[in-house]
Design a protein that fits this description.
Radius of gyration: 24 Å
Structural class: mainly alpha
Order of helices and strands: HHHHHHHHHHH
Number of helices: 11
Amino acid sequence: MLIRSVLSLLPVLVFLFSLELIDTYKLLRLRRVLATAGVGCVVALVCYVLNTVVLGMAPAGVDTWARFGAPVLEEAGKALYVIWLIRASRVGCMVDTAISAFAVGAGFAVIENLFYLPTISTAALATAAVRGLGTALMHGGTTAIFGLVSVNRSEISGSQHPLVFAPGLVIAIVIHSLYNQALLPPLTAAAALLVLLPVAFSLVFWRGEKSLEKWVGTKLDKDMDLLHMIATGTFSESHAGKYLRSLDKTFAPALLGDMLCYLQLSLELSAQAKGDLLRREMGFPPAPDPELPAKLKELAYLERQFGRAGKLALNPLLGSGRRDVWELQQLAEKPSI
């Protein structure tokens, strides 16, 4: 049983951690990857119970449900956590989305294969290994495809409406259902996935890191320009300063002062977050900042002072995209000492 488990599960776990290793920006810690895989395990257990209940009630039979019903249930279950990651800005680009989504699928496959392995005889050990590898790659691959399609559509549309996630989910369900049709022999299907997935993920990582590199450079230049104007006293004469002064009929002078402090502190933290990304890309760990918790606490306090209306008014200067929230999440998870 131990040999079967290792043969079926080890390759996909190696592939998962390989993805984490080739992430040059080191966007995800190993602890997060393992926790995400754990979520996939929980989803698999829930789906196992639901599948058992449905099969006990439905007259269609195991084979029909496995081909058409189970893919819908299982892909939807895995997708829910990925949707939460995107909507909560816990992932910021294609790279960390791909790793996180694949980790959910890999965790799901671990549980599914452990339920399947005891039914395999010793004589069918090779079949168990191939089947386990193919299924694990399929689960990880379909969830990663869902995550990539969804995060790309979310960035393009600037929306996180439920309909944004529908196309990725349909694609994942179709691929899963086709895999369950057993149109190809298990060895052929596993080999195809083993060849295609690394190629696909290499392209995703290349494109994702180029996009992140461009965003970091453009946004860092803008942040530094605004910080320089604030530090040299020329901010009030700039377009940004004139815009902030134009809000004096909407907000009291004290609140405008809080908004200026918030702007400066946000720009400093944004530049710090991008500096950490660049250090990680060059292979250096981010520099600890013992004052970081206090800065984040002050930022939250200032935001409470002027409220949602003030935050919306500052969006033209700071940006309010998912990545702007995500980089603060990255700072919040960073060790302060």
